[in-house]
Amino acid sequence: MTGLPSSREIMRAVIQRVREASVAIGGEVRGAIGGGLAVLVGIEEADTLEDAQWLSGKLVRMRIFPDDQGLMNRSVLETGGGILAVSQFTLFASTRKGNRPSFIRAARPETAVPLYEAFLRQLEADLGKPVARGEFGAMMEVALVNDGPVTIVMDTRTRE
């Protein structure tokens, strides 16, 4: 036994280093940041608070911002950047059969919403300031300027 969760337990995130990012609902901006991280988060049914805590800690400490020599040696915490977090169940799309994606792996709202909210609270605690966010289940418009571009995909099963 490796101690890792089974293959069904994956909190997934797509992280983009951004110069700016925002999320709007119905034409109204609900959250916006300058430089920092835009994070799309998908939650599965079996995800746990431990997954949310691990992912939050990894996000705020990940060294993907340039230092004085232009090397990726600084974290969003060190740069004072912001985080925009948006829930996105489509990160668990399965395209195995046919041409219409299945989202059966994504957690139902009664599971996903409390875990997403816990993830946001943990991010705010780890970052030391409020996190910009969308609204769970809403049709959102996400705008961003990717910096680099730097885009990283992480999941809590493999812890990478």
Helix and strand composition category: alpha/beta
Quickly give the CATH architecture: 3-Layer(bba) Sandwich
Stated plainly, the CATH topology is called D-tyrosyl-trna(Tyr) Deacylase, Chain: A
Number of helices: 3
Assigned CATH class: Alpha Beta
Shape: globular
Look at the structure and name the CATH superfamily.
Answer: D-tyrosyl-tRNA(Tyr) deacylase
C-alpha Rg, in Å? 16 Å
Number of strands: 8
Low-confidence stretches: 1-8
User: What percent of residues are in strands?
Assistant: 25-35%
* Gap between N and C termini: 19 Å
Number of domains: 1
Overall mean pLDDT: 90
Gist of the model:
With 160 residues, the protein is an alpha/beta fold.
What is the topology?
Blueprint: E1 12-25, E2 28-33, E3 36-42, H1 49-61, E4 65-66, E5 72-74, H2 76-79, E6 82-87, H3 109-127, E7 132-133, E8 141-155
Parallel strand pairs: 3-6, 6-7
Antiparallel strand pairs: 1-2, 1-3, 1-8, 4-5
